[in-house]
Specification:
Order of helices and strands: EEEHEEHEHHHHEHEHEEHH
Bound molecules: adenosine-5'-triphosphate, magnesium ion
Number of domains: 2
Strand content: 15-25%
CATH topology of the largest domain: Rossmann fold
Number of strands: 10
């Protein structure tokens, strides 16, 4: 999970010159961002600043007008998003996308990559291999559910989860792909305060195990307590980046939030 780059050297993710317009609106305008290996990096900015769009560009859910994304030493901007996920860059959505008619465990299993069971020929000729792999995946899913505090919900419909539990399931689904970097879009939004603390704790625990995170969040307590470094976008452009204490005191950042 942890790769060889030390955090002071080559960043795990480096994007530059990212741009995307929708009609006349420059949603992301020549933006850059870097995420150090092993870090929890924050991405903040007022509503409509382009944060979610930047996530969509990094993961190629939306094709950038221009820009370069290097992940783990390789350019990835030309790859389709499923291949980017296979390389280890996964993202969650601002609105959680769990399938409500499936159980929590089934949602986890669906998120796993390279399920041999999906291969028709292997199923015909090597059913024992498929069965063994399914068992392993289920064990992995249960272990991850345990680590995000949802083990007791494994057999419940995902549709019955609270907002905060859905965010935890989103994180669990991302973890099922054995990623190197997880992009979390507003993990604390619409979540009750007690569960926000729990989500933060789970993020910290996974980070201590070596997982790198890039987090969009409006809750400043969450950003300031979790992040090693924070990037600020406003009107699609980079406004500032630095350690949380610097960002909190930066007059340009305060002005962007308070409005001119
Ligand atoms: N698919 C789209 N089509 C047209 N305009 C879009 C689209 N997606 C985003 N935009 C516009 O691009 C700008 C940036 O939106 P984006 O969702 O990236 O902001 P954000 O920083 O994530 O905001 P929030 O904090 O409210 O989630 C906004 O003006 C938005 O209306
Ligand atoms: Mg957004």
């Amino acid at each position: 999970m942890v790769n060889n780059h030390s955090s002071s050297q080559v960043p795990l993710l480096a994007a530059s010159g990212m741009s995307k317009s929708f009609g006349g609106i420059k949603a992301v305008d020549n933006a850059e961002i870097q995420v150090a290996t092993g870090s929890i990096t924050g991405l903040i900015g007022p509503n409509g600043a382009g944060k979610t769009t930047l996530f969509n560009l990094l993961s190629n859910f939306i094709r950038p007008d221009k820009g370069k994304v290097v992940f783990d030493g390789e350019p990835i901007h030309h790859l389709p998003s499923y291949q980017i996920a296979q390389q280890g860059l996964v993202r969650t959505f601002q609105v959680a996308r769990a399938l409500s008619k499936l159980s929590v465990l089934e949602n986890m299993l669906l998120a796993a990559q390279k399920q041999t069971g999906e291969n028709f020929w292997q199923l015909q000729f090597q059913p024992h291999v498929v069965a063994k792999e399914e068992k392993q995946l289920e064990q992995q899913a249960l272990a991850i559910l345990e680590s995000v505090g949802l083990a007791h919900k494994a057999d419940d419909y995902a549709g019955g989860l609270s907002g905060g539990q859905r965010k935890l399931l989103e994180m669990g689904r991302a973890l099922m792909t054995n990623p190197k970097l997880i992009l979390l879009d507003e993990p604390a939004a619409g979540v009750n305060p007690r569960l926000i603390d729990e989500i933060c704790d789970r993020i910290v625990q996974w980070n201590r195990k070596g997982m790198t995170f890039l987090i969009i969040e409006h809750n400043m307590d969450v950003i300031m307590s979790l992040c090693d470094r924070v990037w600020v976008l406003a009107e699609g452009r980079n406004l500032a980046d630095g350690v949380p204490e610097e960002i909190q005191r930066n007059p340009k950042v305060l002005e962007a939030y308070l409005g001119k």
